[in-house]
TrEMBL record:
PROSITE patterns documented for this protein: PROKAR_LIPOPROTEIN (PS51257), THIOREDOXIN_2 (PS51352)
Highest taxon of source: Bacteria
Classification via InterPro entries: Redoxin, Thioredoxin-like_sf, Thioredoxin_domain, Thioredoxin_ResA/DsbE_sf
Occurrences of domain Thioredoxin (ranges): 121-255
Protein name (record): Thioredoxin domain-containing protein
């Protein structure tokens, strides 16, 4: 209860501080976060989604690009703070960590930001050529999926988060079941036999492609599982993210 209250309080104070552009309040709240890894991590998970569309601001509240924002976080010298209570119009600003800040915060945000930057830099690129055959013998290629939105998931059986998000992904498939211009494909590192055994007990409505470890890691350079892609009708990657909700929103934007 205390942790929940503190998280809500910190989020409120940060939002008010950003809206007032009061750097004294802003520094005070950043200081509270940087001294406790637990408080910061709780705040980060509640208030920050770097894969989302947001307005990036530097430490002086000046507009910068998302790439510059993420590269700043990759140094481990900054953390992002939310400046908006409206998640549909998010704004994040950089806060520079002090020398005595909890070093675990620096190392964590650095690692997280490196993955987010790699994902972001793939957006706008053409999807690498592919040729997949799913467990039912259906063929999916770069050519026969042109003119369709492709939603691609990278996963493996023993990835807990990969499995936990399947009900939400199934709902997304059901939402577009009457659309012939949307294809849902999943790439798994597991063997055909292991996947068939797994899917006999777990419902997953994506097409499932076995033995894709090399393609995921070498061709797509996947660093974290699950990783999701939205590929538009022209074969261009428009969104890369590690959570199902972000992909659901990104697909809606394509329709």
């Amino acid at each position: 209860m205390y942790r929940c209250f503190m998280s809500i309080l910190i989020c409120f104070l940060i939002t008010v501080s950003c809206q007032k552009s009061n750097n004294t309040d802003y520094d005070a709240i950043g200081g509270r976060l940087e001294n406790s890894y637990q408080d910061w991590w709780l705040y980060y998970n509640d208030s920050i989604k770097l894969s989302s569309k947001f307005k990036p601001l530097d430490a002086d509240l000046k507009d910068i690009s998302k790439e510059v924002f993420l590269k700043s976080l990759c140094t481990g010298e900054y953390i992002p703070l939310s400046c908006s209570s409206d998640k549909r119009n998010s704004a994040y600003r950089l806060y520079k960590l002090k020398a005595n800040a909890d070093e675990n915060i620096s190392s964590t945000i650095k690692n997280v930001a490196q993955i987010e930057l790699a994902n972001f830099l793939k957006e706008g690129q053409e999807m690498k050529p592919f040729r997949f055959v799913d467990l039912n013998g259906n063929l999916y290629t770069s050519e026969n999926t042109k003119g369709k939105n492709v939603v691609l998931k990278c996963w493996f059986i023993h990835c807990k988060k990969c499995v936990e998000e399947m009900p939400l992904l199934n709902k997304m498939v059901a939402q577009y079941k009457n659309r012939e211009d949307v294809v849902f494909i999943s790439l798994a590192s597991d063997s055909q036999s292991d996947l068939k055994q797994f899917l006999s007990k777990k419902d997953f409505e994506y097409a499932v492609i076995p033995n894709q470890d090399e393609f995921m890691k070498k061709t797509l350079e996947t660093q974290l599982f699950p990783t999701h892609y939205v590929i538009n009708k022209k074969g261009i990657i428009t969104k890369v993210a590690n959570d199902a909700e972000t992909i659901r929103e990104a697909l809606q934007n394509e329709m």
